[in-house]
């Protein structure tokens, strides 16, 4: 217990700084895509970490199992202070299983800095409203 308190105080005193990227919106809404049988989420990622340039996108169900998806970018090269809008496409039949869409920072294998921390930010998908709409074949 005391060890973690001492570590926290030491980081505060030494000016330790931890930052993560931004992945918005926090609660995206699933909507119909122009392609039949496909749904889409619109997301935005912002890099506020100088030491990280690469991010990956993943989609999970409510139990954190991977769900198949397509995206405008699955692996994103994003410079410091750059923002990018991305589209995440999933099959409409998987919409009831959809739980989270996540972004994760990636470090290069050539970077040997032990102080770099990877971050994963997840957005919980609001699919209740989506499921109440008529998406079945009409």
Helix content: 10-25%
- Average of the residue pLDDT scores: 78
Determine the strand fraction and express it as a percent band.
Answer: 35-45%
Report the span from N to C terminus: 60 Å
Q: Total number of helical segments?
A: 2
Largest sheet: 5 strands, antiparallel
Low-confidence stretches: 9-17, 129-138
Order of helices and strands: HEEEEEEEEEH
Radius of gyration: 18 Å
Structural class: mainly beta
Number of strands: 9
Overview of the molecule:
With 138 residues, this protein is mainly beta. It is built from two helices and nine strands. The N and C termini lie far apart (60 Å).
What is the topological layout?
Blueprint: H1 2-13, E1 22-24, E2 31-32, E3 38-46, E4 54-61, E5 70-71, E6 75-77, E7 83-91, E8 98-106, E9 120-124, H2 128-132
Antiparallel strand pairs: 1-3, 2-3, 3-7, 4-6, 4-8, 5-7, 8-9
Describe the structure in brief.
The chain is 12% helix and 36% strand. The chain has 138 residues and is mainly beta.
Characteristic terms for this protein:
mainly beta, elongated, four-stranded antiparallel beta sheet, 138 residues, 2 helices, 12% helix
